[in-house]
Structure formats: structure tokens, C-alpha cells
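This is your field. Have a critical look at both lines of this record:
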Amino acid sequence: MLDKLLSMTIDLISHEKTTAGAIAARLELSVRTVYRYLDVLSAAGIPVYTQKGRGGGIMVGSEFRLPATFLTREELDMTIAALSEQKDLNAAVSARDKLLTMKKRRPADVTQYYNESFVVENSDANSNAALADKINTIVESKRNRRTLRICYHSYSGEKTTRDIDPYYLVYHDGSWYVNAFCHLRKQMRLFKIARITHLTYTGGVFLPVSKQKTYTFDLEPRPQQTDLVMTVTPEGRYEAEDWLGVENVKPAEDGVNFLAAGSVPVNEETFAKIVKFGKNAKVISPASVRDAVKKMCLSCLEVNG
């Protein structure tokens, strides 16, 4: 039955509109069986629509896509092997050939998870390693269509346990988020990964469908921005470029140091970044940021002196 369902799914995607009779002929099934399998696909969440009357037919909703990660590598190998045993069925051979093509297009497995566009490597410092581990778990969950159970700590201090279906990773303002369907709220929600703990698999699976990427970053009040100007030494140049951008760090008039400028949030994180430069940076403006950095340094001396 698996080979027929898979063949029918691929057949429906391949045709903008078709009929039960045409599907039956192509897959060597009875029309009655075609309708029974269509019910199975609909129950699985595949948006199958029927249009009655002249010019009508059967179609799959345009929002549905069958991604290359529809099956895990192990499932793909097993399915191809099973279909290879059904050489007398044209539909099985066709489905096998399409899956073989899909497998060839899929990137090889690597130690770090590769998602066709990025690699998350987790050998950094402990805090970054913990974040990378969570990101890898989320990406694997999306890859294998497995529902995750998470413990989420909100900005208000509330701690909730939720089941989520991950769809997208989002990087925003130096932080990682996962855009996922939340079973608790019954809608797509954005979760800051640093606020997620205790990721486990529920044992449930989900069928990916196209969902609109609507990201709202109103999880906390946005800090006020200010235009920062610093002089940095050659030793601090590259760190300043990483932070403010290469185009915002230029040679100073003295021909030795560099002038770094950029818009930054007025918060403790910014002050801490400047303190991290040590003797390799001096705040020129604004005076309020310079005073805040001095205050932070004095507080550190008071606590650790």
C-alpha cells in the first residue's frame, strides 16, 4: 500500500488536475481503490481537492510541497529497496526511479548537521555548544518531521511545556529563533532558542505544509538606538569589524588607529561589548555610553577588587 500511496502523491503533484479514472489507469488500480487511497491521503493531512462538473477533477492544493526530506535517509533506502522488489508494477518502478533521483540530489550526511544552507558546529565554548546542540536537535526534528516537546521560559518568567512542529530557523539581532506550530496555542509561534530547555521527542510526527513566514519580534521592548563612535587600536580592529561591519571601521587621521562607528542599542550588552575591548577601544561619543562603560568597569572593580 505504501508504494501506491507514494506513487499517487507524486502523481497528483505532477498533474495540475487529473481524474480518478486517469489515476487508476496510470497506477493500475480500480477507481474505487483510488478514492479510498485519496481518503487516506486526506486523513494524513495532504490537501486533496475534488472539483465536480465539466472541467472538474482531482488536484492537490498549491500550498503542498513534497520536500527532499520527506523521508529520512534510512526510510528512503528502505522504501527504494521495497519498491525494487515490485518490478512487475509500473507504478512501483516509476516511484522508485523518482526516489532515486531525490536521493542523488540530497546532500551527503556530515558530522555537523547540514541543511543545504548552513552548518551548526558545536565545539565552541560551553554556552555556545549548548545553543548549537539545541539548534541541531530542532533542525533534525524538522528534517525528520518529528514533533518536539520543549520547556519554554517566557520573558515574563512563565515556564510552560509545549509540543511544537519546527518549520524555520530565524536569526535576528544576534539571537536564534525557531518558527514552529505550537500545539498549545494551535498556531505558528516564534520561540527564542536560548529560552528553550529540555528538548525531547514526543514520538509524534507531522506532515510539512507550506506556512506563511510571518515573524513578529515583539517579544520584548526594543532598546533605544544610538550612534556610537570609537577609536580602536590595530589589535581591536577586527573585533570592531565583526561587531559593527567592515565598512564601518576606517583608518583614523593618525594613520595608526581606526575609527569605528555604527548604530547600536543602548543596553547592558552593548556596554559589555565595549568593556571587552579593554585598552583597545575608546568611546568618543555619545558621552552617555562612555559614562555607562565607566560605571560598569567601576562596578566590576568594586565586586572583584
Summary: Residues 225-304 form one domain. DSSP finds nine helices and 13 strands in the chain. Residues 105-119, 122-126 have pLDDT under 50 and may be disordered.
